[in-house]
Amino acid sequence: MKNLIKLSVAMAMLLCSGLTKAQEKTITGTVIDASGIPLPGTNILVKNTSNGVQTDFDGNYSIEANSGDTLVFSYVGFETQEVVVSGSSIINVTLKDNVEGLDQVVLIGYGSSSKKQITSSIASIRANDIVDINTPSIQSLMTSKVTGVQITQLSGRVESGIKVRIRGISTVGASQEPLYVLDGVPLINDDESINNSPINPLIGLNPNDIDSIDFLKDASAAAIYGARGTNGVIIITTKKGKTGKAKVTLNTASGWNFATNKREFLDAEQYVEFYTEAALNSGLSLSEIETQFDQLSLGRDWRTNEVDTDWQDLALVDGITQDIDLSASGGSEKIKYFVSTSYNKTEGIILGNELDRYTLRGKVDADITEKSTVGVNINLSKVTIDRLSNDNAFVSPLQSIAQSPLTPALLEDGTANVDGNSTLFQNFLGQEQTGRFVTDIWRTTANIYGDFYINDYLQLKSEIGYDANNQNAERFSGSLTEFASAGGVGTVSNAITERYILTNYLSYKRTFGESVDFSATLGGSFEETNRKSQFTIGQGFPSDDLQTLDNAVLITNGGSNKTKYNFLSYFARSRFSIAEKYLFNLSIRRDGSSRFGEDSQFGWFPAASAAWVVSNERFLSNSNFLNKLKLRGSWGITGNAEIGDFASKDLYGVTTYDERLGVSPIQLGDNELRWEKTTQYDLGVDFGLFNNFISGEFDYYNKTTNDLLFNQPLPGTSGFTSVVRNIGEIVNKGFEVNLNARIISKPSLTWNVGALFTKNENEVTDLPSGDIIDGVNIIRKGEAISSFYLYEYAGVDPANGDALFYTNATNPDGSLDKTLTNSVSKANKIVTGAPFPDYQIGFTNTLKVKGFDFQFTFQGEFGASIFDQAGKFSSGNGKFLDNQTLDQLDRWQNPGDITNVPQARLNQDNGQADSTRYLEEADFIRLRNITLGYTINPTYSKKFYMEKVRFYFSGLNLFTITDYEGYDPESTADFNGNSGVRTGTSFYSAPPAKTYTLGINIEF
C-alpha cells in the first residue's frame, strides 16, 4: 500500500511537471523605437526572476516564459515597458523616448526625488554619463560636467590635493571644500600629510564603483546638511546589485604619463655668458666669477662645456599607469548584491613619485519581510604613495631646475653630487638615492541601514555609518641628504581619524485626491569624530640601509595627542505638489557642535523653494516649440563649522622656565564664537525646445556669508598674535547656463553635445578689522577675496637698465600717481588681479555610430591670475646664481635697448620685488579628456560567452591653449600660507600629467 501511494505521488508530480512545461514556451519578437529603428542591447527580463536576455544587433530576441509571466523591456534613454505573456508567442515592442529624464532619481540628502519634482539647483552625473571615461580620480569625472563647480588639481603629483569650489569662495579661515557624502556617510576630509602638501581626500575611491554624483548647489538643497552646507554638498553613490542574472565586468587598461609642459632654461654656454655679464655689471672681476664657475663645475672644464646638466629632464620623467577592475552584481527579488575589487599603479611624472591603490567594495540589500529591507555597504582601500617634499623644500625635484647647468648631477661612481660648493642647494638625487618617504593610507567606509514600512505611507530608516582614515608616514633622509651631518634623520608619523554617524528619520508620502502629492521627512543624527596621532624623530643611523627608528642612535623628539568633536542635529523637510504644476519645498535643520562657544553651539538653518511647471499648463500642452518649462526659486541659510576643534577655547600648554615645568596660555579663545552663515537665493529656469532637441538650465544666485571665521590679528602687547572671531562678510553672485542638444538620436547613431557657462563675482563687503595682508595676497573690503597686492612693474629704463615701478601714490582726487621710480621703496602696492576665475566654460561632445563611440570634453577658465613666487629666482635677471628661464636672454645690455627684462646684476636687487612682473593671467582652454571606443557586435561576442567587449583609447590633458608662461595655468603651490588659504601662488609647481591609455571592457 505504501509503495502504491509513493508511486501515485511520483506520477502526480511528474504530471504537474509536464503541465508546467507544457505552459512554458518560447517568446520571440523585435524591439524598436518610435521611428521604427531596431534597438540592439535592449534588456528583456521575466519579472521576479533572474531569467533575462538582450536583443541582438537587429533588435530581435528570444526568451523562455510561461503564460501569465510579465516581460520587462528596458533601454537607456527610453521608458521601461511591461508586457504580460498571453496566447501569442510573438511580442513586438515599441519603446517610447524618455530623453527628458524626468523620472531620473536625484539624491537630495536623507531621501531622493524624481527630477521632475526638484525645486532646487541640483546637478547630477550618472554612471551612463561617465562609463566610457577612464580617469585617475573621482574629481576628474566631475570636471566640466556641472555648472558652478570649479575643480583644480594643485600639481602633477600622483597624490596631489584637488580644490573643489562650488559657486565661489564663501569663507576665509574655515574650510573652502564642499561636504562629501558617500552612500549616506559624511566623509572625513582632513589633511594629515606631514609635509604641508595635501593628499586628495578621495584618493582611495575606485571611479568605476560610482553610480551617481549629485551636486547640491543652492541653499534649499544644501540646507538639509545645515552647518556644513555653505560650500555645497557632493553626494556620491556607489553601484548596487539589480534583479537578474549575475553580471561580471572586467575593466583593464594601461597608460603612459608625460608632463604636459616643459620650460626652457639656459644651457651651460648661455649660463656662463649670462652670469659673466651679470658679475661684471655688479663690479666683480672676471676671475671672481670664473672661480665660482670652477666651484659649480666641480673640477670639470666648463669652458669646453664638459658638463651641461638638464636638471628639468632629471626631475620630470615618463611614467606608466596600470588599472584593473573586476566587479560582479546580480540578485533576486529578495537579495541583491554588488562586489568589486580594483588595483591601480601610477608612476608619476616627477622622479620618485608613485602610487599603488587597492580597493574592495561590497554592497548587499535584502528584503527580510514584505515591509522591511536591510543593507550593508563596506568599502576598504589601501593606498601606498612614494612621496616627495613640498614645493617649498630645496629637495623638491622641481626646485632642481634652479641648479646651475655647470653642476654635475652625479659623480663618476653614479652617486649624487652633494658637494656644498658645487650645488647651490641640496641635490634632490641624494634624497632619491639614500632616502625614503612613504605614506600608507588605510580607509574604511561602511554603513548598515534598514528601511521599515510602518504602513503604506510611513517609512522609518535607520542607519549607522562609519568612516576611518588611518594614515602612516615614514620618512628617512640618509648620508647624501641635508641631514648627513646628523648621521641621517628618520621620522614616523601616524594619524587615525574615526567618525561614527547614527541617523534615524521618518518619511511620509501620500497622495490626496488625484492632484496633490505630499511627502515629509523628520529625523535626527548624532556624529562623533575622534582623532589621535603620534610622531617620533630619531637621528644617527649606522647605514642608509637601516632606515627604521630602532636603528637610530638617538630619539630626538616625539609626541602624541587626542581630540574629538561632536555634531547633534535635528532636521525636517516637507514637499508637496499640486497637479504636477506647483511644487513646494520647506526644510529646517538645527545643528549643535562642540567646536563653538558654550552659548553659541546650536544654530538654525531654514530653507524654502518653489517651482512652477509651466509646460504642464493647458495653454502649453500642445506646444511643438516649448515642451518643457519650469521656473524655480529658492532661499536658505547654510553654515560652516570646519575650523579647529578648540578654536573657541582658551588653551594652555606645558612650558619650562629655569628648568622647571609650568603651564602657560597658548591660545586666546572666544566663548561667543558661532557658526559662519551663508544666506543664498537662487532663481532658475529649466527648459526644453523642439521636442527636447535643445534643453537646458539657467540659474542666477546670490550668496552672502557673514560672521566669517578667521584669525583676527592682535597687537603684540596682548601676548597673542591672533584670535579666531566672527568678523566680516563676503558676497558671491553669478549665473550658470547649461545647454544640451540631441543632434541625432537613433539606435545606430546618436550625437549629443553639451555646453556649460559659469560666471561668478566675489567681493568682500564688510571687514571691520581692516585689511588683512598675507604675503602677496590681501583681504580688503570692496575687493575679491585673497586678491593680489603687489607693486606695479613699469618695465625697464632704456637709459640704464634699471627696473622701474609706478609710485601709485594717491592723488587728492583719488586717482593713482603713475610717476616712475627705480626704487621700489618709493612705490606703493596696489590690488591687481585675483586667483579665482570670473568665467568657466565646458563643452562635451558624444557620438556613437553603430559599434563606435567617441567623446571629448573641453574645459576653459578666464579671469584668474597666478603669481610666480619662484620667478624672483629663476626669472630674476641674475640676482642669484640660479639658472634662468630663456626669456632672460632678452635682458637690457646697452643704452637705448627696449625690453621688459632689467640689466643682469649678480647679488644686487634690480626688479626682484613682489610685483606685477611675476603676475600672469591664467586664462586657458584645455582638452580635458578624449575617448574613442569600439564595441564588438554582441552576436559575435556572445559566441565566446561575453555579453559585451569594448576596446578603447583615451587621452587626458592632451593639449592646452594659454598665454601663461609657467608650467601650467592650474598648478599652484602645494604648501600652506600663513592663513592656511592657498591663493594662486606658483612655486616650482609641477604641471599635470598628460596620459594616453589603451583599455578593454568585458561583460560576462
TrEMBL record:
Superkingdom, taxonomy of origin: Bacteria
Signal peptide boundaries: 1-22
Keyword Signal set for record: yes
InterPro entries: Beta-barrel_TonB, Beta-barrel_TonB_sf, CarboxyPept-like_regulatory, Plug_dom, Plug_dom_sf, TonB-dep_OMP_SusC/RagA, TonB-dep_OMP_SusC/RagA_CS, TonB-dep_rcpt-like
Record keywords: Cell outer membrane, Membrane, Signal, TonB box, Transmembrane, Transmembrane beta strand, Transport
Membrane-topology descriptor: Multi-pass membrane protein
Main localization category: membrane
Gene3D superfamilies: Carboxypeptidase-like, regulatory domain, TonB-dependent receptor, beta-barrel domain, TonB-dependent receptor, plug domain
TM annotation in the entry: none
Subcellular location: Cell outer membrane
TonB-dependent receptor-like beta-barrel domain: residues covered: 422-765
Pfam family, one: TonB_dep_Rec_b-barrel
Entry similarity comment: Belongs to the TonB-dependent receptor family.
UniProt xrefs under NCBIfam families: OMP_RagA_SusC, SusC_RagA_signa
The protein's name in its UniProt record: SusC/RagA family TonB-linked outer membrane protein
